[in-house]
Amino acid sequence: MDKMSREALAVKRAEQAFDHKRRTLGLFCGPIIAILVLITPIQGLTPEAHKLLSIMTLVALWWITEPVPIPVTSLIGPTLAVITGVVAVKDAYAAFANPMIFLFMGGFILAKAMMVHGLDKRFAYWLLSRSWVGSNPKRIFLAVGLAAALCSGWVSNTATAAMMFPICLGLLTSIKDMFANSGREIDLHEYKYATGLMLMTAYSCSIGGVLTPIGTPPNLIMLGFLDTISNIHISFFEWMTWGFIAMVAYFIIAYLVLYRMFPADVDRIEGADSFIRARVAELGSWNRAQKNTLICFIVAVLLWVTPGILSIVYGSGSPVLKMYNHLFPEAVAAMAGALLLFLLPVDFKERKFTLTWKDAMDGIEWGTLILFGGGLAMGGMMYKTGLSKWVGDTISGALGGEPSIFALVAIFSVMALLLSELTSHTAATNMIGPLAITAAVSAGLSPIPVAVAVALSASLGFMLPVSTPPNAIVYASGYIPITKMIHTGVYIDVIGIACVTIPLVIYFVSWVVG
Questions:
Q1: Cβ contacts of residue 177 below 8 Å, gap of 6+?
Q2: How does DSSP assign 7-34, residue by residue?
Q3: How does pLDDT run across 203-233, given as a tens digit for each residue?
């Protein structure tokens, strides 16, 4: 067993031991602390709000410690709210039919079709086969990151990482073969460029998720909270204008940090371009299923961005835009593109269509949808019972009565980042999101900057293998020492928060809002 294998095994055992203790502690301490909250007199809370605070304490602790699966915890909250008389059953479960759920569902189905028919690989290999990439290690590093980031804006971060992982392994094999042919044997586990390429792949998958509302769950969760708690609707196009800037800034930071820390020691990787060409040739020509999938994807994207175009052409208050938004809201646009997959035939005589129901079901992350719905349900109940106002006033009071937007963005960005390093970024956003929005509203500030900051910060989980699935996937390669991931992750997290999230959200978003 080599050094890296022993290190990976030791880390895995330590993680398992920590998880066991964390879950056991949460299983017993969660209900005890929730009961203590319930029996403790708290001024300013109605009985319903007090009971909901107790329930949210349990849910938050179980989201962090995970004694039961996170989606199960997301169902426990609304269920307890009904049992304890906080809200009626129709109010508790209404959030699970929120249009945002169907926007995500449509995005999942479209992404599954792209993976089933290989459109994601076609795009990745197309980008890597460009003439400007060639066999230059620095440009390969850049192209791999770009392919991962742009794919993960539309396909799940985990699926993108799983797709890019074997591509990176093939490129690293070309490097090893090149050195072997020149009489120099290298150990890829100790080769800096191999570590950097793997980290660039993982980080780019998380970075690309900020591009679109469907790129990663925190984006839609915060949009859902804005709509539910503050009655503020942010369009798909509006988010993309912010997400694109954030993605570019995050990507530049990650690229500069990683390539500076893990440079290649050669000017050319012999065999890299031939490896990519061989993979492109294996894909063959476009088939009917791939063409149909591309059509469905384009339909959805056009429907998503059309409101932004109409707003520019006719103005944000035009009757044309209002009619379009009434007929084709984002959720309907997503479902229209997804449903077309079941209508466009691949072989009509055999009644074969572009996507089967079985494949579609395999592509829908039901746990994410349940977690999303549970978060929206808890956020909505906070608003209805008055708990959100109490929390907002408490936070504002703790920050001096009238905190600045800068202070709120900084505090909640760091909170979202730290929680996303330790638990699911989806669960972290569900916990921090309502607090951030209600604190901003209580302070008399626009909740949009702080909401966007939380979403963007939750995607900066780069320090640990357990922080995000892409991190775990590339760490399994054995090419990334845990100390290197922590070291680079700290750099990018800190720079991302300090130099991107805060000024971007405060100045750019505030300028857009007016």
A1: 270, 271
A2: HHHHHHHHHHHHHHHHHHHHHHHHHHHH
A3: 998 899 888 888 888 888 888 888 888 888 8
The model carries a pTM of 0.81
Instruction: Give the 3-state secondary structure of residue 352.
Output: strand
Q: SS3 letters for 338-349? A: HHHCCCCEEECC
Tokens representing 428 are 């972290």
Delimit the domains of the chain by residue range: 1-86, 90-116+287-373
Predicted pLDDT of residue 9: 65
Query: What's the pLDDT tens digit per position in 111-144?
Result: 888 888 888 888 888 888 888 877 788 888 898 8
Cβ atoms of 422 and 65 within 8 Å: the answer is no
Identify the DSSP state of 96: G
Q: Provide φ and ψ at 346, rounded to 5°.
A: -95, -40
Kindly state the tokens that stand for 511.
Answer: 């300028």
Cβ-proximal residues to 182 (8 Å cutoff; 6+ apart), any chain? none
- Helices 47-65 and 366-385: crossing angle in degrees, nearest 10, is 150
CB of 114 closer than 8 Å to CB of 80:
no
C-alpha 408/C-alpha 398 separation (Å) is: 12
